[in-house]
């Protein structure tokens, strides 16, 4: 299982792609196309939002029941991959829920009022409908014979919301909207139908046969709807438990949980961020790490590594291994800060607070590590060959500190976006 240990954008796509080399199946279990997973391979960059990263290894990929699927985006992404020479071997869960046109519109309207800073992809409204039950559309209904009746009944019940959002004004608009939605989505359903199946059986049978299955988390621990910095979170379960419900596997079948963390911290959207760097320092880190969102292009907020977060992520996910990414971005800094605790109202704590107000007040308590020199591309190759001992001594010390203070072994270190810039410890 590969889980984001921070606020998303940790580089899970790259780690999953790396692990997918020895996998039989790669499974997405949460979120939707709010995710942006970048994979660099064979001199090309793939930006995936919905399909599991294993797709560029020609592996079987599964979109599990916990995902919300925008059929338009799914088909566009499949086309993009075909154009690049990959034929996706996809199984889409019949229990997954569908993101419709109106979900995207409701997302942008709601966000203007709520200021969560969502990606505007309709993810929140689709999960709301899932929990509400009466206005939801599952893939099984979407590709089934009763799609038309189902969508008409949903739209009748959403009529007031559609009017409020300015999508329709009168009966004529409503009839036109219904007709165009039905025709557009019937077209998608036709193409998607052959990929739909009960993926619970596919995944469990594969595991029982001893095959390697990698679960690819989207977003990160602190964006989890239960464990994250609520309400500034996404609407799904991004943590390890979410993989079990979002794919339909028992926890006993999960052998290892890799928590992916950047060597520093970033966050997109609103909400408290104790180690955030403002001004020039933040800007320098953003530029060094090219910290701009894969999905929305927004500038990511940047700050120092926060071990209060990583220790919390270890607890709620049962992380067995850490994958530290973007270590190269810190190269060339004289001193590097690591947050080991917070001070809240004059009291020191190493627990991650559940209260939003407490987190806003949290002052990071730092220790300082010595920096290391930048390495050239040629040196990077040698580093990967030699393994962890090829890294500058202070970089090794930095990783050791992370291991000691979190109690989690660092198993993978990424020192660049390419597949060949990965160190297995
Ligand atoms: P939503 O998932 O579009 O509803 O957005 C809710 C919050 O999650 C916003 O702060 C987004 O910026 C954040 N978010 C959603 N997906 C990702 C992701 O893949 N990486 C980082 N942040 C994300």
Structure description:
By secondary structure, this protein is α/β, with parallel strands linked by helices. It is built from 14 helices and 20 strands. Among the domains are: 97-194, Adenylosuccinate Synthetase, subunit A, domain 2; 261-425, Adenylosuccinate Synthetase, Chain A, domain 3 (Alpha-Beta Complex), CATH 3.90.170. Helices cover 37% and strands 20% of the residues. It has a 5-stranded mixed beta sheet with strand order 1-11-15-19-20, sandwiched between helices. Strands 9-7-5-2-10 form a 5-stranded parallel beta sheet, with helices on both faces. Strand 19 and strand 20 (422-424) form a beta hairpin. Helix 3 (101-114) crosses helix 4 and helix 6 (147-164) packs across helix 7 (171-192). The longest helix is centred in the middle third of the chain and has 22 residues, at 171-192. It is globular and about 70 Å long. Bound molecules: inosinic acid. Inosinic acid is lined by residues 8-9, 34-36, 116-119, 121, 123-124, 218-219, 223, 232, 234-235, 268-269.
């Amino acid at each position: 299982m590969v889980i984001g240990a921070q606020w998303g954008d940790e580089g899970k796509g790259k780690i999953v792609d790396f692990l997918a080399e020895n996998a039989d199946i790669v499974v997405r279990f949460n979120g939707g196309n709010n995710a942006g997973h970048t994979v660099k391979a064979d001199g090309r960059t793939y930006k995936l939002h919905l399909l599991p990263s294993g797709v560029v290894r020609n592996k079987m990929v599964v979109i599990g029941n916990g995902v919300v699927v925008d059929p338009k985006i799914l088909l566009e992404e499949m086309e993009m991959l075909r154009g690049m020479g990959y034929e996706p071997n996809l199984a889409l869960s019949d229990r997954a829920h569908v993101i419709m046109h109106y979900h995207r519109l409701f997302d942008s309207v709601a966000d203007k009022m709520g200021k969560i800073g969502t990606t505007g992809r309709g993810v929140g409204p689709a999960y709301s409908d899932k929990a509400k039950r009466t206005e939801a559309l599952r893939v099984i209904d979407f590709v089934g014979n009763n799609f038309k009746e189902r969508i008409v009944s949903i739209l009748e019940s959403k009529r007031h919301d559609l009017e409020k959002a300015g999508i329709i004004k009168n009966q004529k608009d409503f009839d036109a909207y219904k007709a165009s939605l039905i025709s557009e989505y019937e077209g998608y359903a036709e193409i998607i139908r052959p990929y739909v199946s009960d993926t619970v059986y596919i995944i469990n049978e594969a595991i029982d046969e001893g095959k390697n299955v990698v679960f690819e988390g989207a977003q990160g621990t602190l964006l989890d709807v239960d464990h994250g910095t609520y309400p500034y979170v996404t609407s799904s379960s991004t943590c390890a438990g979410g993989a079990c419900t979002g794919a339909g596997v028992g926890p006993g079948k999960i052998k290892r949980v890799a928590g992916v963390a950047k060597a520093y911290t970033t966050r997109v959207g609103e909400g408290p961020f104790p180690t955030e760097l403002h001004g020039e320092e933040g800007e320098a880190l953003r530029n060094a790490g090219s910290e701009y969102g894969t999905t929305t292009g927004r500038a990511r907020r940047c700050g120092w590594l926060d071990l209060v977060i990583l220790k919390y992520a270890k607890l709620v996910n049962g992380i067995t291994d850490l994958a530290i990414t973007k270590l190269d971005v810190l190269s060339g800094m004289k001193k590097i800060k690591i947050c080991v605790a917070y001070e809240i109202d004059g009291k020191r704590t190493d627990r991650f607070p559940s209260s939003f107000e407490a987190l806003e007040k949290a002052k990071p308590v730092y220790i300082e590590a010595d920096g290391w020199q930048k390495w050239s591309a040629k040196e990077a190759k040698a580093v990967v060959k030699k393994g962890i001992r090829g890294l500058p001594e202070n970089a090794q010390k930095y990783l050791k500190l992370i291991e000691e203070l979190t109690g989690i072994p660092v198993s993978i270190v990424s020192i660049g976006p390419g597949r060949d810039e990965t160190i297995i410890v």
